[in-house]
Design goal:
heterodimer; A: 260 residues; alpha+beta; Gyrase A, domain 2; 4-stranded antiparallel β-sheet; 6 helices; 25% strand; B: 314 residues; 2 domains; 8-stranded mixed β-sheet; PxpC (chain B); hydrolase activity (chain B); ATP-binding (chain B); hydrolase (chain B)
Chain lengths: 260, 314
Amino acid sequence: MKTPMGQPLAIESLVNVPSPDAWRIVPSGDTCLIIQVAETFSLDANRRAAAIARQIEARRAQGVLVGITDVVPGMISVGVHYWPDAVPSTSGELPYRSLTRQLDEVLRTSSSDTAIGAAREIDIPVCYGGEFGPDLDEVAQACGLTPNEVIAGHTASPVDVLMLGFAPGHAYIGEFASSLTIPRRSTPRTRVAKGSIGLANRQSVIYPTDLPGGWNLIGRTPLSVFDLADTSPCLLQAGDRVRFVEITPDEFQALTGQPT
Amino acid sequence: MTLRVLKPGLACTFQDLGRSGYQHLGVPVNGAMDADAHRLANALVGNTPDRATLEITLQGPELVFQVGAVIAIAGADLGATLDGEPLRPLRAARVRPGAVLAFGKRINGARAYLAVRGGYVLNDTLGSASTYSRGAYGGFAGRPIRRDDVIGIASGFANPPRVMLPRDTAPHAADDAPIRVVAGREWALFDTASQAHFLSTPYRIENESERMGYRLSGEKIMLQAPADMLSEAVGFGTIQVPPSGQPIILMADRQTTGGYPKIAHVISVDLPRLAQKLPGEDIHFALVDLDQAQALSLAHSARFAQLEDAHGPH
């Protein structure tokens, strides 16, 4: 992969911390900065990004890092949105430099322990195939597997919530075994039903609401993953561990409409 | 204590300063496209800046006030009239019960903001009254206003505050100065010809430009080599370049993350001016550094804070 940055990790970060914990802070416009933890994707880099986001949130809860509005995990980075005029700074120091200095300090002094605000483990019941997963047979064929082998691969072990994006509550989950490598559909659907489980490129998504989408649909969960009426509206967040659990159509019907 | 919609206009939605704090869940920020005009309209009627205003795009609605009220309009001049008499922009006006606010011919700009003293009665969704039409939530029923909607007004009878607007807070709708940008994360990955084109040739705002983003057309902007990008946070004003080479500026209803290379970001003080541009208009970009952008942002915030302190609720 080409480096998206065009330059190597900052020497300064590498000198002061062991390399697995290295990060680099760069501006992204005048009201956002990006904490980059690696140059290429790996599950380890993704987990470190999620852990950094949790560390920042933990410190914000203690009343430090004033001026930040949103802490947004990406695939291997954390975006930090802020109000420049709300960032405390001394002697004309610009908000970006003040916040960067504070974040470097927080990340140096925080434990790199990924258990901070520990990753949660969540079971997601899924009814695979049939009307709930119309692309299951096609996916199996493309992967050279039987439908049951696809289901077995999808439920085999816990996987990570890599990040959320695209739409409210829309989680990217992975990675699955390389046997589940399949591109997205060449023609996206204009409407994918809420709860549908998409599969592509060793990742899954769960459609939080009815949305357009191009992922291969292999099943559907009766769980509601996004509820605006709730003050914590989303079942999943970056860094969570998810286990997909196969259920029957009868169990799906029984779970539908029941409180989650 | 209500107003009723006689004609809905074109995509009029309630907006405030946005739905911050939920972007990690993929929840877009939304909020006023021209936050300055939104704040001015609120200040003119003595509201705090976090009260929702009605964002009116190009073609205004027709509204009948069923109660006395104090209103103000800022941003685009969309030819507002009150009971047929021209309504002067940027000043508070008293409205008698039964009065009709209408809009006529657009004079300048794209978006006007209608504030009512006391604010509109709307339910917050995740801490904000901003409408997100795609998600069908926020504002009034999660959608643009429609004929016969009846919208509550929190209070009506106070005297309008006497607001003196500093000269430099007036709208810039007709301003042709370049839109200032800071270099994007992937600026250096674009070829030098593309970088030069971006800063020296005009880009036209295309028809499919709305609250989510402005699609631009002009000289193609190309990477030196294909780049394998990973999704990361994007913001209001981020300028992404998809493989077509035609840039897209992300606006108020943008997604929270993006995976296209970013050539630049519009600086925050120039976003209101950009929000007043229309499809078909040409824009030029000029590069400034981050220090300059943030110094401008701080000075701008200080001016508004002063205005709002002087004219906020008493």
